[in-house]
Protein backbone atom coordinates (compact mmCIF):
# COMPACT_ATOMS: atom_id res chain seq x y z
CA UNK A 1 0.00 0.00 0.00
CA UNK A 2 1.25 3.46 -0.76
CA UNK A 3 1.26 6.20 1.84
CA UNK A 4 -0.95 8.47 -0.28
CA UNK A 5 -3.93 6.22 0.57
CA UNK A 6 -3.26 5.89 4.29
CA UNK A 7 -5.06 7.92 6.94
CA UNK A 8 -3.20 8.70 10.15
CA UNK A 9 -4.75 7.40 13.37
CA UNK A 10 -3.12 10.24 15.28
CA UNK A 11 -4.42 13.27 13.37
CA UNK A 12 -6.99 11.70 10.97
CA UNK A 13 -5.42 13.33 7.91
CA UNK A 14 -3.78 11.65 4.91
CA UNK A 15 -0.27 10.42 5.72
CA UNK A 16 0.96 11.97 2.46
CA UNK A 17 0.29 15.44 3.89
CA UNK A 18 2.54 14.80 6.89
CA UNK A 19 0.63 17.03 9.31
CA UNK A 20 1.92 15.41 12.50
CA UNK A 21 5.14 13.71 13.57
CA UNK A 22 3.52 10.27 13.32
CA UNK A 23 2.55 10.92 9.67
CA UNK A 24 6.02 12.17 8.81
CA UNK A 25 7.71 9.20 10.50
CA UNK A 26 5.49 6.68 8.73
CA UNK A 27 5.93 8.39 5.37
CA UNK A 28 9.71 8.33 5.80
CA UNK A 29 9.68 4.66 6.81
CA UNK A 30 7.67 3.73 3.74
CA UNK A 31 10.08 5.61 1.50
CA UNK A 32 13.02 3.70 2.97
CA UNK A 33 11.35 0.31 2.48
CA UNK A 34 11.56 0.64 -1.29
CA UNK A 35 9.10 -0.44 -3.98
CA UNK A 36 8.36 -3.86 -2.46
CA UNK A 37 7.98 -2.66 1.13
CA UNK A 38 4.28 -1.98 0.86
CA UNK A 39 3.32 -5.29 -0.72
CA UNK A 40 1.53 -7.87 1.35
CA UNK A 41 3.18 -11.24 2.01
CA UNK A 42 0.53 -12.94 -0.13
CA UNK A 43 1.42 -10.79 -3.14
CA UNK A 44 5.12 -11.43 -2.60
CA UNK A 45 4.48 -15.19 -2.38
CA UNK A 46 2.42 -15.10 -5.59
CA UNK A 47 5.16 -13.14 -7.34
CA UNK A 48 7.79 -15.64 -6.18
CA UNK A 49 5.64 -18.56 -7.35
CA UNK A 50 5.17 -16.92 -10.74
CA UNK A 51 8.90 -16.36 -11.12
CA UNK A 52 9.66 -19.97 -10.18
CA UNK A 53 7.09 -21.21 -12.69
CA UNK A 54 8.60 -19.01 -15.41
CA UNK A 55 12.07 -20.29 -14.56
CA UNK A 56 10.87 -23.91 -14.68
CA UNK A 57 9.31 -23.35 -18.09
CA UNK A 58 12.53 -21.83 -19.41
CA UNK A 59 14.57 -24.77 -18.12
CA UNK A 60 12.10 -27.26 -19.64
CA UNK A 61 12.36 -25.55 -23.04
CA UNK A 62 16.15 -25.61 -22.91
CA UNK A 63 16.19 -29.39 -22.49
Mean pLDDT: 83
Sheet/helix structural class: mainly alpha
Gyration radius, in Å: 18 Å
Order of helices and strands: HH
How much helical structure, as a percent, in the residues? Answer: 55-70%
Q: Work out the strand percent.
A: under 5%
Oligomer kind: single chain
DSSP summary, beta strand count? 0
The number of helices is 2
Distance between the termini: 40 Å
Spans of 5+ residues with little confidence (pLDDT < 50)? none
How many strands, which pairing sense, and closed or not: the largest β-sheet?
A: none
Shape: rod-shaped
Topology:
Layout lengths: L20 H13 L7 H22 L1
Structure write-up:
56% of the residues lie in helices and 0% in strands. With 63 residues, it is mainly α. The longest helix is centred in the last third of the chain and has 22 residues. It starts with 20 loop residues before the first helix and ends with a helix.
